[in-house]
Amino acid sequence: ISDWRFLSFMFACGALLGPFLDGYHGAFGVLTYQPPLAVNLQVGGWYSAEGVLHTALWVPPLFGVAGVLIGALYVAGDAAASVGSTLDKAEEHAPSLGAVLATIGLFTGQYWLSGAMWALHA
Fold first, then answer.
1. Residue 48 phi/psi, 5° resolution?
2. For residue 56, what pLDDT is reported?
3. Cβ neighbours for 50, distance < 8 A, ≥ 6 positions apart
4. 33, 35, 41, 46 alpha-carbon torsion, rounded to 10°
């Protein structure tokens, strides 16, 4: 995978979504971060002692790298699986935007649920 635009996009997606996923676990008490690495974000009228987003400074780059690795592995896996295939273009396998957003929504819900389930048994 040598397309820097794709890899940059995957890094940005991971770096932007990751802290919010991490914040779910912070909200349920699964994990906590201490200053000076902790970052709190207050949004609108939502307020708590830790804010609606409680994460650490290293979380965005960590999730960014995860986005690059996961995205690159999917592309490499698709390329390996299509060797000898009658399909000429990868675009024929590309999911719709709606399918991608639904999958991200389901993954986000699963992340939230993992924190909620932990809190029930804490």
1. -145, 175
2. 86
3. 26, 27, 40
4. 70
